[in-house]
Design goal:
This protein has 13 helices and 15 strands. It is of the alpha/beta class and 437 residues long. It is globular.
Length: 437
């Protein structure tokens, strides 16, 4: 088997120059599913290099700005990026998607319609997040405030996870988004394979219940609700990866002060959750540590979660957020490239050995003329040539692995089909004959 992998790898290396054309030409196919610890697309293993771009719907809601979405997708595909994670929420405040519970801004929804249609055109899969833990774009605080305005006595933003009225508001949003008719494609969101997965919430946290029971119950309830509407798409919870009480031997790996009511193992074992997610921000979580300690933490963080996805969860894993801020003291593009290379190496090493890590999505991709969206972690590919090269190399390597495994799987299917045909022929030749004594 090892010789076969090496041989296939050498053959595929010859085809490397055609890589970007092949990625674009392959389109984004059907629905992505899972089989054990692997993503599957069109009955073959699926690996993906990707990016975050939370701003896509917001920008696309202004038709005069939609060219920025198109430019970002074009630049992404030219570097082999095939998955984008973005917001399908904007609750209250300025230019919301949801003015009030059940009251929607059609102009903003048309922006999301355009994003999905444009992603389809560029062969990009989307992970759409349905709510925010933080106040940015409304978040759980806005939901709680809506409930308060309707007479609910609530004392904490964490009541988002507990109060039946608030949960009803959120379920209505799930139902509205999943059943949305796309005005550009004519396809209901729940029927569109351009969407890879739904995300329950961006980085859910419930600090008022560090036991983890509150968020566990909420994930179970909401995962079941999503699946009752949409069985086509994958679902993930939006977790950062912090360990909880089900694995006390792992909690020492959490950065200090991050006992925030989630449990990487228990939360991802919920039946409706199809794959695990992981975020990694050592420059934030270990801000008082030096670069070497931060990299050491990150490497252990990735290794442990990949191992647990393989042997405890038995589900695929995506690193859905990571990055390094140019606002950090002593920042240099080289230091960012080192961090990206470390993350990508862990993913690649797992993928090439058949492990559960299937890709990474850096935070965040911008395009020219978006200075107001710069947060320190932003990357404009045309302005960051060394980082862009690191990103493109990872895309290329994952694409080659995908082709290798696809050929291996197809060869295995062919062998099994041939064996089955021989068996049928044998039975046909011996039908009616007396076999044995």
């Amino acid at each position: 088997m090892n010789h076969l992998i090496v041989a296939l790898f050498l053959v595929l290396l010859v085809q490397e120059k055609c890589f970007l054309v092949q990625v674009k030409a392959s389109g984004n196919g059907g629905f992505i599913t899972t089989r054990g610890t692997h993503f599957i697309l069109n009955n073959n293993p699926y690996f993906a290099n990707g990016f975050n771009a939370y701003w896509l719907m917001y920008v696309a809601s202004d038709p005069s700005q939609r060219s920025k979405v198109s430019a970002a997708f074009q630049e992404a595909t030219s570097h082999g990026l095939t998955v984008s994670r973005t917001w399908a929420f904007s609750d209250g405040g300025y230019r919301p998607l949801q003015f009030a519970p059940g009251s929607y801004n059609e102009q903003m929804f048309k922006g999301l319609d355009f994003v999905i249609a444009e992603a389809r055109r560029y062969g990009i899969k989307l992970i759409l997040s349905l709510a925010n833990n933080y106040e940015s774009f409304g978040g759980k605080k806005q939901y709680v405030n809506w409930a308060k305005s309707r007479g609910q006595y609530l004392t904490s933003d964490d009541d988002f996870f507990r109060n039946s009225v608030v949960k009803g508001f959120y379920k209505n949003h799930i139902r509205t988004v999943l059943n949305r008719y796309n005005t550009f494609t004519g396809i209901l969101y729940k029927n569109d394979p351009t969407i890879m997965a739904w995300e329950l919430m961006n980085e859910p946290r419930c600090t008022s219940d560090p036991s983890g029971r509150t968020i566990q119950a909420w994930i179970m309830e909401m995962a079941s609700y999503v699946k009752s509407i949409d069985r086509n798409h994958l679902l993930e919870a939006g977790l950062e990866g912090f360990y909880g009480q089900t694995t006390p031997q792992r909690t020492h790996l959490n950065p200090a002060g991050y006992n925030i009511g989630t449990d990487f193992i228990a939360n991802n074992l919920v039946p409706g959750i199809d794959f695990a997610t992981l975020h990694s921000y050592p420059d934030i979580w270990l801000s008082s540590s030096n670069e070497q300690d931060q990299l050491a933490f990150m490497n252990t963080w990735l290794d442990t979660h990949i191992q647990d996805a393989q042997y405890m969860l038995r589900k695929p894993l995506l690193v859905t957020e990571f990055g390094k801020s140019w606002k950090d003291s002593g920042f240099s593009p080289y230091k960012r490239d080192v961090l990206f290379n470390n993350v990508y190496f862990k993913i690649y090493s797992s993928a090439k050995h058949g492990g559960p890590a299937a890709g990474g999505l850096f935070w965040q991709l911008l395009t020219e003329g978006m200075d107001s969206f710069r947060d320190g972690y932003d990357i404009i590919l045309s302005q960051s040539p060394t980082t862009a090269n690191v990103i493109a190399q990872e895309s290329r390597k994952l694409h080659l692995i995908q082709k290798i495994f696809a050929r291996m799987w197809n060869m295995d299917r062919w062998r099994r089909a041939r064996a089955a045909r021989r068996g049928d022929q044998w039975h046909g030749r011996n039908r009616g004959r007396h076999i044995g004594n």
